[in-house]
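fwd from M.: "can u put these together and see what the complex looks like"

so here's what she sent:
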Amino acid sequence: MESLTTEGLTPSTALPARLATQFSVSPSVCYQCKKCSAGCPLTFAMDLLPDTVIRLALLGQEEALLRCRTIWVCASCVTCTTRCPNGIDIAGVMDWLKEEAVRRGVAMPQPEVATFHRYFLDSIRRGGGRLSETALMQRYTLFQLRHRPNLTELVRQLKLGWELFRRRRLRLWGPPALKGRQDIRAIFEKAGA
Amino acid sequence: MQVSYYPGCSLEGTAADYAASISAVAPLLGVELLELEDWNCCGASAAHSLNHELAVALPGRNLALARKRGLDVVVPCALCFNRLKAAEKEMAEPAARPVRIWDLLDFLTQETFLTQVSRRLVKPLTGLKAVAYYGCLSARPPQITDKPDWENPTAMDRLLEVLGAEALDWSYKTDCCGAGLAVARPDIIDTLVGRLYDRALAAGAECFVVSCQMCQANLDLTQSRISEKTGKRYYLPVLYFTELLGLALGHPEAAGWLSRHLVDPRPLLTGKGLL
């Protein structure tokens, strides 16, 4: 039998207060109708249901939230926020938790999604303002090869790349250099991204 | 009529087919699309997931460019549209010269354009059974998008009826296809998109009609993979509403746009005598 531990159970009393100031409607108005979870199309891939995320946030269970799979599986379709009878921005809370998890360097149950997002932002910054889909896909494919090599998946990706290329839908050159690339650099620097 | 046009990054790449049909169809309706000069990426899901400030500042720059020009902005990509609207809501100071941000579908389905289209129909899409698939972010959340009909949008259904096609009723119009996870979690996409295929078929559809290039890619590029995985051999072409507009208005390049999809819509349309 595992020894009893209080690790992870120490609540962060600051969390509900921080969320209350972060959003125009405080998540503490949640009365647990679970409409968010009922309408969420991604629950099949989640470890915590959206209503549980809100509940745990109110209970200050920061550790459990920052380490959960749910926040990275959330597809940001915003059905939850749209349907919440109390106006809680549940999808916004998910985003807030993602940002916080990355900022704190929390070990993620599945780093793929955050890595993809990070490469996406890098690509905009490096390209001077617009995304190069091709560069993003190349870099992400290399990450996948290192992280979880899968030959079948690689072959599929290459085939898809070829299918797009021959339909003139794969741009091999990068995005145009923007006149405002200094603005873009400043925006990234100010945001610390 | 002149409007600013914000194409977004993927219309310069994987959605070049969508871009081509938009550029061709707009002038047919007397719309001059003036690309927003020096526009930048809106930051998409990556920015709003990892850095809230960036997620407002990046589209904020585009909004500033649009306000400087003073024309309404038309946006084909649902995510770009959503981020521009979000930036508009978050930027504290009221604009000296506010401009309206339009989702392309809403813009082109205004009554005045629908009337024009019905008068100038060259090739009615008779016999084409389609489901209109709107996706998430052009409609949700209404606090951001200012849409009145976020649970049951009808703009595309109305357009399809005007074009002579049959727009079938179904309950998955705005259900998420998971496009933001398409690269990092393809396994999740297989479930979400497979569900959409099955529901579309159950409604009697022969194709999807979309207005978002993320939805298009996610339903089109994955179809062979999902067919292989489920053994169901799906054949459900995913058409842009602008392609059908072009086809029905007799644009000579319509077949060319359609040839750039992975699930080739030409056999379906040829079979109906529409190509």
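replying to her w this: Chain A touches chain B through 59 residues (CB under 8 Å).
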